[in-house]
Specification:
The protein is mainly α. The protein has one domain. The protein contains six helices and no strands.
């Protein structure tokens, strides 16, 4: 699970290395969100739910921006908001990997995450379909959209597999108890 994402991130990092030097990356999280995450560092369920909420809010903001007729730089804002989503979603996955390595019980929150994965997948696919009608604008954000879709698509089976593994481990643990 962890290996595929890291390889993809390394390739993406190498591709974006030149542009990263020219343009500093901003943190996709606001200070209040960072404070909330800091307060939940010891509780995997709460922390992971926050990441799901933050990722969802990025996609909601993207949808609102794209339907606002007053927006003039729609393609650039779409790119930036998609990148924020990808950054938050990657942090979610990194946190899942960290808590899973610590043998934390993530069964409850994984169900929430899997539901969100399906929602994110549908929203990203809808954006991809709408981008096909305006190919000129889509060129600016096509790469990050493709990356977001690939990230979610590859994470869904990983999240389901982790849930299954944790449920099986819980059953074994239950059988061993005297």
């Amino acid at each position: 699970m962890k290996g595929r994402r890291h390889v993809r991130r390394m390739v993406l990092s190498l591709l974006l290395l030149g542009s990263a030097a020219a343009e500093p990356r901003r943190d996709p999280l606001t200070q209040p969100e960072i404070d909330q995450l800091r307060d939940t560092a010891q509780d995997p369920d709460l922390r992971l739910k926050l990441y799901v909420d933050f990722a969802r809010s990025r996609l909601t903001a993207l949808e609102q921006m794209r339907s606002d007729p007053k927006v003039t730089d729609r393609a650039q804002q779409t790119h930036d908001r998609l990148q924020d989503f990808v950054d938050v979603y990657d942090e979610l996955n990194d946190n899942i990997d960290t808590y899973a390595a610590r043998k934390s019980d993530l069964r409850r929150v994984l169900k929430t995450i899997i539901e969100a994965d399906n929602e994110f997948q549908a929203k990203l696919r809808a954006l991809k379909e709408s981008a096909e009608t305006n190919a000129a604008d889509a060129k600016l954000y096509d790469f990050v959209l493709t990356d977001a879709i690939a990230d979610v698509n590859s994470s869904i089976p990983d999240h389901r597999q982790l849930l299954q593994e944790q449920e099986e481990a819980a059953k074994r643990k239950k059988l061993v108890k005297p």
